[in-house]
Amino acid sequence: MHDGHAEPLSPFKRIFLEDSTQCSLNEKLADEFRGSGGSASRSSVKINLICEFKNHTIQDISISSGNVPDQSAAEAILEHIRADDLILRDLGYFATDVLEGTRDREAFYLSRLPKGINIYLSDHKDAVPVNMPDLLNEKFPFRSETDSDVYIGENKMPCRLIAYRLPEEIVGLRRGKARRTAAKKGRTPSRDYLKWLGFGFYITNVARDIWSAEVIGTVYRLRWQVELIFKSWKSLLNIHILKGTRSERVKCLIYGRLIAVTVMTMCYGYAFRYAAERFRREVSIYKLFNWLKRNRRLFEAVHTESSDTLFNDMEKNIHRFCKQKRTRKTTLRLIEEQIGYLDSFSENEIGKMRTKYPFADITTLISDALSPFVIFTGVVFAGIIFFFRYLRQLEKNKIPLFNSQY
């Protein structure tokens, strides 16, 4: 029987996805719910979600002030995981001690690798960190992907490091975004960082006989499912609209909506498994949530304790909730067919990035073309031209270059 999950995912008992989202609050609540600063609201609440993908259930939800970094919540997931579980999380949760704790529990992780983490080719005490982009460009200039055994961090944790040489358009868009982000802070991204953005770096402790290097980046795309969950919460349930100036009221709104979200997610998990087992189809969370809201179906089922009737109606209408068949493959289908990461970039995906950052690749091409030597030469040349024009103006107005009285 087809269980609705791609083959690369079948070795794992549970797959945990974790991410957070922020909701702006009235500024009067800044003492209790401080915002993240900058151009963001002075007051905001952060909702941290751990969900389990295979059963589509919520494992844990917590709230905190908006200025609390994701990394402070990184360790909390260790109390949930067991042997043969898999963790996929955003880069903000990266912590080598948590990865080591995951490995010690005989569980697995897949994570992007942030710049700034030391990478070693040996665990010898005298080993020195390597510059991976330079090493790859020197040793494997024509290799689109590499799979290496490395050691990372102060404790030299062993892991697989998979590096993808990204398509030029993607690199241009990433570098353009990095430059704009740095410019807002009055900075300029370093050349080392720009070279780093030319690659996608991933680390994992999953064995090669389970995941090939080609498919690892594709599997990581699964993490975006939690982003879709947040979008559905906001667009369909208005979970981010929290009006009020009293913390008690805001907390009641948050917890009340999170209870509703939890119940609706339970319904979604049931529908997803039913559609996968019976029809090998994927259920749209948007369609199902809308159906549950319509005619107060969920409210009536809870109020009259008629959940059996609700689930029977869901089964009868299951085709209405399924995603439409389309040319562009879903993330789950890409994983199931084990499409290589570099082959999984669609024109539609690149087009969306280009629309969001229309001048990114242009500015990148210009900036990359201008080496420090070229920039220096240009400045000197411009200075010479300006000086001769200045002399011409002095001569025209019969003004001596140096005043003789000095």
TrEMBL record:
Regions that span the bilayer: 252-271, 369-391
Signal peptide: none
Record-level Gene Ontology MF annotations: DNA binding; transposase activity
One GO BP annotation of this record: DNA transposition
Keyword terms: DNA recombination, DNA-binding, Membrane, Transmembrane, Transmembrane helix, Transposition
Domain (Transposase IS4-like) ranges: 12-261
Family to which this protein belongs: Belongs to the transposase 11 family.
Protein name (record): Transposase IS4-like domain-containing protein
